[in-house]
Amino acid sequence: YAKEEGKNNFQFYSTDIKTLSLERLTLEANLRHAMEHDEFSLHYQAKLDLKKGSITGVEALLRWQNAELGSVAPNRFIPVAEETGMIVPIGKWVLRTACEQNMAWQRQGLPPICVAVNLSVRQFADENLLGDIAAVLAETGLAPHLLEIEITEGMVVHHPERAIKLLTAIKAMGVRLAIDDFGTGYSSLGQLKNFPIDTLKVDRSFIRDIATSADDKAITEAIIAMGKTLSLTVVAEGVETMEQEAFLREHACDEMQGYYFSKPIAADEFTALLKTHLQPG
Ligand code: C2E
Ligand code: MG
Ligand code: MG
Ligand code: MG
């Protein structure tokens, strides 16, 4: 009755600030052995071209299944992995696994798609980052343009000099670059033009109420227009409804990602999705 017990514990401590540190310590302790116990996996979520309706890419999203804790959401464990630095080896594993999986799809004769991997602030600060990316590409044989690295606005806003150097070097390898959750940080058009990025991902919070909120409509339209000005591919995140899709198509957003087309799914399910998607009609 571990579940029952966990619930009681939570209720008992819920008024106490200790809940936070206790949960944190439990996460941290379990996270330490997650890699060796093979508890991580990747799920894959399709990105769709809004005009053609074809799958253009896929985002790799980390999943953690622990015997004691069950399945733990990234928003809960990634901050802990960040603070402890564990995200660096974990992130390396994500990068390698996503590239290997993309090669596997190609070997099966599926049309080439680009796989996107999220990069954490900690990895961004790691001096081995460039070498690690180069090594993974060399060892897996994946064409660099079939890998995209997603970074957040925060990384480029807070460390602009380092960001330009690093992003330019990554870009020089032929790897694509995306800004994730765009609109939630504080980067400006003027700043963005200095970075060699390919893709802007409009944060889900702007898409959610796009059918009803005049503000969110205006913001999304502005981001799409800005993306066009800078010749970037604009991707809308968190598209869940037909109305949202219609709005984005009408306003010439390039791509969409969200539950409306597909949730993040296991690799073999994604393989099946790619295959059915190829069939005409
Ligand atoms: P993200 O990179 O912005 O990824 C998109 C998140 O939105 C994913 O949550 C995805 O499952 C969710 N999502 C996609 N479509 C929809 C939709 O239509 N509706 C709703 N409600 N949600 C949607 P997830 O997988 O829980 O990941 C959360 C965040 O954790 C990611 O946000 C990313 O910042 C981070 N993350 C995930 N995997 C990794 C990783 O391998 N490395 C690092 N550093 N961060 C990761
Ligand atoms: Mg992302
Ligand atoms: Mg995002
Ligand atoms: Mg996010």
Automatic annotation (TrEMBL):
Signal peptide: none
Domain of life: Bacteria
Sequence ranges assigned to domain EAL in this UniProt record: 24-278
Protein name in UniProt: EAL domain-containing protein
Species of origin: Noviherbaspirillum cavernae
Native organism taxonomy: Bacteria, Pseudomonadati, Pseudomonadota, Betaproteobacteria, Burkholderiales
